[in-house]
Each structure stands twice: as structure tokens, then as C-alpha cells.
């Protein structure tokens, strides 16, 4: 095998590993720490969690269905990103629903911090290797690519809007701690994406 072929294989393996590791981290962060206190992540997953809390329908499946228009947009604009996002959407949805029974009942402030940290690292790893959950992370990727805005800031801003949508359903305590979650997640996603 030639050096450039070997490099291509290593790149594909690294991207697949990032996709699986990031998806596992998201599944653990969401189910283990956010769901027990009905906290929200941001973006499409946050909307999926609101729908899960309302209708008891699996959040992973909701997130995949809600991501379809963004995946189609990626197909048109950036085929490379499409492949990573399409597979990322499916794998993340599977791990979110697979880890649904595993919840840790910790104090709400600790759950908000740990959930945000784990989800942020998962998203950052995926974005670093040009893959994503297919949700608003994909929008953040395209906006950051086209503007000087920081990807972590974009994610945190969109996530904040989603958390505000949850106010009517979940109340002030959930909004406050979900905001902590998304700020930590946005910061760590940015660090993982830009520095490592």
C-alpha cells in the first residue's frame, strides 16, 4: 500500500472513530445527565428532547427526523460534510435511544455541568473530523465557514434560542440549568474543534 493510500485509510478510520466516540458521548451526556432532570441540550437534539418530554417519543428518532432538511442542504452545498453528517445523524440517533435507560440521578447543578461537558466534547470531536449530528451543528459549521464567527458562539446562540422555547414546557429551573449546560457545551465544542 502506498503512503498516500495509507494516509487516506487512516483519515477514514479517524473520522469513523470520531463519529462513534462523539455519538457515544452525546448518548451518555443526554440520557445520563440531562433527561433525569428534564434539562435541554440545544439545537435539534434540544427540540427532540422537548418533544420527548411532551409525547414520550424517543429523542434520537425525533432528532433524526428533524435533521432531514439540513442533511438535504448539506447534500447540495458540501458533499463531504453531507456524508459525515448523514452517518453522524444516524449513529447519534441510535446511541441516544440505545442509552435511554441509563440515567444518573445527581444534583441538578452537577448534571447540568457534566451533561454540558460530555455533550460539548462529543460535538467538538465530531466537528473536528468534519462530521456532525446533522442538526444545528451543521448550520453552525456552514455559518462559521462563511463568516468570522466562532463555531462555539454560534452553537451556544442557537442552543440558547432552543432552551428558551422549552420555558413554557419545563419552567424556569430547567431553563437556568439548561443554559449552564449549553454554555459549557458550546465552550468545549469550540475548544475541541479549534485547538485539538
TrEMBL record:
Main subcellular localisation: membrane
Membrane-spanning residues: 12-34, 54-76, 85-102, 108-127, 139-164, 170-193
GO cellular component terms, A-Z: plasma membrane
Membrane topology designation: Multi-pass membrane protein
InterPro entries tied to this protein: UPF0750_membrane, YitT
Keywords: Cell membrane, Membrane, Transmembrane, Transmembrane helix
Pfam family, one: YitT_membrane
Compartments, record wording: Cell membrane
PANTHER family, alphabetized: UPF0750 MEMBRANE PROTEIN YITT (PTHR33545:SF5), UPF0750 MEMBRANE PROTEIN YITT-RELATED (PTHR33545)
Protein name, entry field: Uncharacterized 5xTM membrane BCR, YitT family COG1284
Lineage: Bacteria, Bacillati, Bacillota, Bacilli, Bacillales
Amino acid at each position: 500500500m502506498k503512503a498516500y493510500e495509507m494516509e487516506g485509510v487512516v483519515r477514514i478510520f479517524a473520522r469513523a472513530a470520531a463519529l462513534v466516540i462523539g455519538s457515544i458521548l452525546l448518548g451518555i451526556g443526554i440520557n445520563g445527565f440531562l433527561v433525569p432532570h428534564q434539562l435541554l441540550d440545544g439545537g435539534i437534539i434540544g427540540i427532540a428532547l422537548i418533544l420527548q418530554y411532551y409525547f414520550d417519543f424517543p429523542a434520537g428518532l425525533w432528532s433524526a427526523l428533524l435533521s432531514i432538511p439540513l442533511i438535504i442542504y448539506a447534500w447540495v452545498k458540501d458533499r463531504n460534510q453531507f456524508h459525515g453528517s448523514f452517518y453522524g445523524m444516524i449513529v447519534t440517533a441510535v446511541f441516544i435511544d440505545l442509552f435511554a435507560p441509563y440515567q444518573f440521578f445527581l444534583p441538578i447543578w452537577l448534571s447540568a455541568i457534566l451533561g454540558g461537558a460530555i455533550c460539548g466534547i462529543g460535538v467538538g470531536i465530531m466537528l473536528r473530523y468534519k462530521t456532525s449530528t446533522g442538526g444545528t451543528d451543521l448550520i453552525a459549521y456552514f455559518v462559521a465557514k462563511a463568516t468570522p464567527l466562532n463555531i462555539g458562539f454560534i452553537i451556544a446562540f442557537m442552543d440558547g434560542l432552543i432552551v428558551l422555547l422549552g420555558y413554557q414546557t419545563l419552567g424556569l429551573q430547567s431553563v437556568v440549568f439548561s443554559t449552564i449546560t449549553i454554555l459549557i457545551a458550546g465552550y468545549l465544542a469550540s475548544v475541541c474543534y479549534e485547538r485539538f
